[in-house]
Design a protein that fits this description.
54 strands, 15-stranded mixed β-sheet, 13-stranded mixed β-sheet, 43% strand, homodimer, 628 residues
Chain lengths: 628, 628
């Protein structure tokens, strides 16, 4: 019965909305039956429309007002432009804030399903495909998202000159050379004024952007190049002097140790604080969400960023290159990211490849004590520019104050009685108890009501810059049956009051039956599993331990290098029954490092692990322990 | 009696506000009398406070809730920092949109007076001193505003090298040289993170900005240098290669025809679309406002920008250099600006000097037809990036559609029945009548309900870049008894659908008894009075006239050059009884130009004008007329 209603195409009706830009009577079909039905789009009609944005935005208003169960697209390729897209001022943690234009503004929706029917959604210019806010029980399924012109620059190295430190790049993405610099260019509509006078403000409006965060990629492995730091830097302020040799080839001048090899691929995103504007999915203050059978081929920030939300499932939510594409990059930042979430996060059956950042990151964010106002009130501040207007907490949330140097809790649980926002950096918190004798300026505050549990299983991570899974949450997390081949650590459990202020110690983390394959080829001195809370004190000065109960068992570590596990400040660490298998995928970068480094941990068990060399011999894992 | 209450200092009471950051009981004095009284600040207390921002923001909340008549400062010097300032997302026409931090958030105030008592208000970093929105009968008086660190770079040329095209500048404002470029640096607070790691994001957050819109100033005249285009360009994308010679001297490399002379002054603001963030006064949707005895010594955008407001008086609202200051610049943009206003704008007894743009500009803004949706609806768009989220009109406003090529009205008066914002560029307008046969894509639409009358008298304009008064409004305007010595035209009456889309033909403009003194020394080919609607058609192709009834009489034009008046597309132009007096302030730049150029005007009267040469002889004014 459900299925029957699902595909029902019945009598059409007209829209009543005030923002009708098109006559939709022949496009949408509505139901006369009282049971909530799906809006079903007429394939013949919508396939003719250049820009589906205003039609879908209007359809969603209609869906909400009529209580439809969902909207269903016939399988096809649909284009979305920003011109008539509604916009919303949106503060998105770990991405760039601003007015975001979207065709799918899901605000205050309940029990709603967006069924793409296997369609390709192609976006143009600065857009945010899906905003899901204050919504419950939402499913998005069976669609792919991509952009016609990407948010990065890609080009193949044709020639290089180690003496002059120049290299010639055949650029494969839209670009502009001007003022001795190369700019990546994003898609935008020309106004008649601009037709007459040129793109006068394209640079200032960041449609042309200076390059930033450059990295060299290896075409043969489709991954970041081995030891990329020799050829490129992921720093922000640097941009290469550039000279156009012809319409598609640009000569760049390097400041790095070596020029990139011929045949390798130059990759760069735009300027920092302008290069995370367009995530694929923005989720905020929502609950019970399912993302299923989705391919994110590209996005101009993270693939999915969920914040202050609970109970989210990603099932076959893939961040993958399009099969026929020459591109080497999917998302400009993390594939997925969960901040300040609770309930259960499930990530299963997903492939995350070729991102310019991590596969996932589940964490809270420490705000920091800015001022003690009185016994029960503090002003707090968030420091990273990507945490402006971060939604730290609300009335009733449980908070803990952590010491600014040790990162360890220094208060019992406090309850928020009131939050008053002052500006995008500073808010005032009122607590149920006195904090006068406890809190000091610059201490961290952690919202422990919003730590999530997670199950991460049967996923593949490969060919991305940076890490696999980053876990910072004190609820139970299981990481099972995954394949992770990342450029840096496969897993990182950190916590810091430095750059990102990521909060939440781990408590009850299980990592088992995973395959870690040739991680750490970027050249960073990490470990495949890296547990490194960034305390300001030396670990030996800290009384107590940051993380608790981490079990790493029955995993396969295929690795060309030495570092397997680095663990700091853990109470209860089990590393057992793991198999390390040496490979010759790359030359070792840190062959003299011990396989396992344990620094200031308690209750550590290392047993039944094996280490098989290329020769077939077995060796004991080398362990360096500092238990002080 | 009023005066007595004014100075009353009575029993103090505590605040109930949730955002109390300070104990204010000893700072504010309240009245027990039922008559609305002023909040009076305790001098001894507030003079000790480093940052008055949170105290004033809270006091204003209290003033509103208690119905106070105003807030009174004891004479003193007070500092305002952004740290605890409330912020508001604000779209300000002709300035930069964004979250603005202010100590004076006057939203929904009525019958309120901010009495500065002759105080100096010193601002730090990115702040907007006064926001006045949805407020009526507001007076701000007796105060000055200034910034500790300015929004421009200033430096004296010590040496130059015409061969290498370099010049050495002793920089007098905060700066940074990095990556072979010079940055102006704005004030910001260091976070502990930044203390440890440096201003990692100062460039990306635009606290360090590349220079933009450079111009050379003349220290002896304190005005822009004669023929500045020889040495500098007001373009946006250009920035000089720079090398620090020592802590204060930087060698810049010019791309212009000549290097600036030794002793002249290099002036530059930051990057376009980031250099108009902080006007002094933002006025929006307000009525009956008086600004009296105010000195704006500096602001990081316009001095005062009023939008969608009516009946505003500026009396001794001065944009002037501080007497003891070495600075040569006051406001980064126009001293004052009125867009989409109605009622009567009065500007009297003001001095506007040393701005980087005009003294005032009174105009509407043409939006443009983007799409004809149906008989009664269009989508319109605003094109200039400084017109994002421009408030074009509301229900009941009278609109006229103007032809995109001739700028002449092509519709009768239409009434807005509804406005629906789609995004910051596009909105949908519903009219009371059909526009189907009238409107075409890219035609302009003009909101004629919001054209203001104006009286501009007894003002002085001097030493600024650009023009004096720009008038584009079809209500009566009188410009009398002013002294105007501007670098470009003293007065401009234009109208365009090109760059700025400034709307409103003049109708009944009187310009009399003014002194125009040595204008046009910048080298632009203009005229002291420039009437030049920027129609896309040749004037001879246009049937009809843009402006109407302009009287220019009894003025003194002291001028070293030839061009006095250029008038195009006026029906009813009188230029009579004016005295032109030749000076030797500068060498003539366009000596072969006629004094008066009339192109495509009707009903023109030129009579009783005199032209006295340096020799004492009198000459007839030369006139070039094209009446086709």
């Amino acid at each position: 019965m459900t299925k029957k209603i699902f595909f029902l195409i019945i009598v059409s009706i007209a829209f009543a909305s005030a923002i009708i830009l098109f006559d939709l009577t022949s496009i949408f079909k509505d139901s006369e039956i009282n049971t909530p039905t799906y809006y079903v789009l007429d394939e013949a009609q919508i396939s003719q429309i250049k820009d589906l944005t205003p039609i879908i935005a209007q359809a969603l208003e209609e869906c909400k007002s009529k209580g439809h169960a969902g909207i269903k697209f016939p399988k096809g390729t649909y284009h979305f432009y920003p011109t008539y897209a509604p916009d919303f001022y949106t503060a998105i943690t770990n991405n760039d804030n601003g007015l975001k234009r979207t065709p799918f503004p899901l605000f205050n929706f309940n029990n709603f399903h967006i069924d793409g029917g296997g369609s390709d959604f192609i976006f143009h210019g600065k857009m945010l495909p899906f905003i899901i806010e204050d919504s419950n029980n939402i499913t998005v399924s069976d669609l792919s998202i991509d952009w016609d012109m990407p948010f990065f620059t890609q080009g193949t190295i044709l020639e290089n000159n180690p003496v002059n430190k120049t290299f010639d790049v055949k650029i494969e993405t839209p670009f502009l050379v001007e003022d001795n610099r190369i700019y990546l260019t994003l898609e935008r509509e020309n106004s008649p004024y601009e037709e007459e006078f040129g793109h006068r403000y394209a640079k200032q409006e960041k449609y042309h952007q200076r390059l930033g965060q450059n990295i060299i990629w290896d075409r043969s492995t489709r991954a970041p190049i081995y030891k990329h730091g020799l050829y490129s830097g992921f720093d922000n302020s640097f941009f290469f002097p550039a000279k156009a040799l012809n319409d598609s080839v640009v000569r760049l001048t390097s400041k790095y140790k070596m020029v990139p090899p011929i045949g390798s691929v130059f990759i760069s995103k735009g300027e920092y604080l302008n290069n995370r504007e367009c995530p694929g999915f923005r989720v905020f203050k929502s609950k019970d969400l399912l993302f299923k059978n989705i391919n994110v081929h590209h996005s101009g920030a993270m693939g999915l960023i969920a914040e202050r939300s609970s109970d989210i499932t990603l099932d076959s939510f893939n961040v993958v290159l399009r099969e026929d594409s020459n591109r080497l990059i999917t998302t400009i930042a993390d594939a997925t990211h969960f901040c300040n979430c609770k309930g259960l996060i499930t990530i299963k059956n997903c492939t995350f490849e070729n991102m310019l950042d991590d596969a996932t990151n589940i964490h809270g964010t420490y705000a920091r004590v800015k001022k003690i106002i009185n016994d029960n009130q503090i002003a707090y501040e968030t420091y990273h520019p990507h945490q402006k207007d971060y939604f730290f907490g609300a009335k009733g949330d449980s908070i803990r104050i952590v010491d600014k140097n040790s990162l360890l809790p220094k208060s019992e649980i406090l309850i928020i009685e009131d939050v008053k926002r002052i500006n995008e950096k500073v808010s005032v918190l009122s607590f149920n108890k006195s904090i006068r004798e406890i809190a000091e300026e610059y201490d961290g505050i952690d919202n422990i009501s919003w730590h999530a549990s997670a199950i991460i299983e049967n996923n593949t991570v490969r060919n991305n810059r940076a890490r696999g899974f980053l876990i910072s949450t004190s609820r139970k997390v299981e990481v099972r049956n995954n394949y992770i081949s990342s450029q840096m650590a496969a897993m990182r459990m950190s916590g810091d009051l430095k750059l990102w202020n990521e909060s939440g110690p781990c408590d009850s983390l299980i990592i088992e039956n995973n395959q870690f394959v040739n991680n750490l080829h970027g050249g960073n001195k990490q470990a495949i599993i890296l547990i490194d809370p960034e305390q300001h004190l030396n670990k030996s000065q800290v009384e107590g331990y940051y993380h608790k109960d981490i079990i790493i068992s029955n995993n396969d570590f295929y690795t060309f290098d030495s570092p397997i596990l680095k663990a700091e400040s853990v109470d209860g660490l089990i590393f057992k029954s793991n198999r390390v298998i040496q490979t010759d995928a790359y030359s070792p970068i840190f062959p003299d490092e011990p396989n396992i480094k344990i620094n200031h941990c308690k209750n550590v068990t290392l047993k039944d692990n094996t280490y098989k060399l290329l020769t077939g011999e077995y060796l004991n894992l080398s362990v360096e322990t500092n238990l002080n």
